[in-house]
Amino acid sequence: MNPQLHAEPSGRNLLLLSLFFLVALTAVALLARPLTPIDETRYVSAAWEMWLRGDFLVPYKNGEPYSHKPPFMFWMFHAGWALFGVNDWWPRLVLPLFSAASLILTYLLARRLWPTHPGLGGQASLVLVSALLWIFFSTTIMFDVMLAFWVLLGMHGVLAAADGKRRGFVMLGIAIGLGVLTKGPVILLNLLPITVLAPWWNPGLKWARWFGGVGLAILLGAAIALAWALPAGMAGGEAYRNAIFWGQTADRMVESFAHRRPVWWYVPLLPVLLFPWIVWPGWWRSLAQHRREGLDRGTRFCLAWMLPVFIAFSFISGKQPHYLVPLFPAFALLTARVLTHRLDSRVGLPALLAAALGGALMLAAGGQIASLRDQVAALPPMWPGAVLVLLALGVWQGGRRGVSPMLSLAVLGVGMLALVQFAAMRSIEPLYDVKPMALAIKQVQDAGIPVANAAKYHAQYQFLGRLNMPLVELRGAELAPWLAAHSHAYVVVYLKDTQRLAGIDARHKQLYRGGAAVLVDAKTAASLLAAHVE
To answer: Are residues 36 and 151 in the same domain?
Structure first.
């Protein structure tokens, strides 16, 4: 008997499998990656400064109000610190927990969209947890998976409201409000198109009642957001108040269009972002077949959720891959639906691409390995490539033996990201683990000596060093006068030429993001900076 996924009608086993994969990937991320600058360390440092001040209204970065992000994720960090004490590991578990909740909401949403196909929920959660972009950002301290959770909650509200349940509009309003508190007004771009297109995916709606309810949901969301923004604006001062009420919208759009990327920029990235699903020819054949058979309500719902937002983000010039994360549940639901009756179990092309990547990793590592003995004893980066090749071969062979293509592709996606992280681990840690520098700065500050940062400072050392004082940010013409007036101070200086690192007398020095960072006294800093070292 072939182990087809459809043998388990409720899909709960696949949901549990997807949660297990998420736990495994979280463990890999904790082992293979430190908290990395600039984004992860900056966000945890903002939460640390709020905690240090006892101010839970206004986020701070290096002693100044931080208006770029709302505080909801920081509050989640505080909740764990209140329970477990301040630690490094809790902030790294918050996003996986929201990812787990999103898998459950995706499972439940599939059951609401296709009640006659209850197994689709488990399949959709399995697709979601194995898509590379979703996996990566589920274990990274960024806002997008958390935002996706509120989008999913809003989609449940939209469906409930379309079915005539008034509480659906309340759910939508809560999702809008908490989404704004998570990442600002972008939640509206993710939720409003599905409501505008409701007459297409759910014919028979009474327009006046529907759009009146949506309007009330927006007002409820605005009230939730303002419950924080009004007192925070008063507490943070005029500049902060202007930033959160204006800078989160118009200023962000201006900045976005200042860094133009073409309309088609996302398209060539999709095979990577949606690997392994979108590169499987069987997925495309199933999609074409499903279209010929006619689009049901659930399929229309997914398309109305996904396509308008993707088009909108394509026309916004300031594109980033993670902006698409809240669309991934829609893709997972659509994939589960179109593959409902897929019997073709061969997944040759994704397995071939994964094997090619594994071979490339092995070749890249080959020049770094002195002997087989060293390879076995130290496990340098060749072994993940070899395991990935074996995994790809196993998936290909499993397809020939009738193993479900959905299960095969999920294992391939999860395994590939885990192994790539292990392969990159020894390269990432020396360049991105800034905790040693942060602790060195802490020692200097504890001795009562001021520390400056000779570049734009992203607060990357504040949390990891548990610093109680900000660093002095020095740039351009500020540098020389400050160094002359503070001869006893220490300065973090950034070097592009790492070959000079050995000859510098420094309190601490380390590689940093392709260059190096050194903690030196003011005199040494002045000489380095005079030589135009950045």
So the answer is: yes
Q: Which of 431, 452, 467 lies at the terminal end of a domain, its last residue?
A: 431
Tokens 């059951």 locate to 111
Instruction: Report the alpha-carbon distance of residue 392 to residue 278 in Å, rounded.
Output: 17
Q: Which domain holds residue 251?
A: 5-338
In this structure, the answer to whether residues 287 and 310 fall within a common structural domain is yes
DSSP calls for 470-492: PPEE--GGGHHHHHHH-TT-EEE
pLDDT along the chain (534 residues), means of 10: 48 91 93 89 95 93 91 96 95 96 96 89 92 90 95 96 92 96 93 94 87 95 94 86 68 50 85 82 79 85 94 84 93 90 63 62 52 40 73 70 75 84 79 92 94 92 94 86 90 84 86 88 86 56
Token pair in block for residue 190: 């993710």
Evaluate whether residue 163 is within a structural domain.
yes
| 136 and 242 fall within a common domain | yes
Domain check: are 217 and 330 in the same one? yes
91 vs 95: CA distance, rounded Å: 8
The pTM assigned to this predicted structure is 0.88
Residue with tokens 């209850």: 118
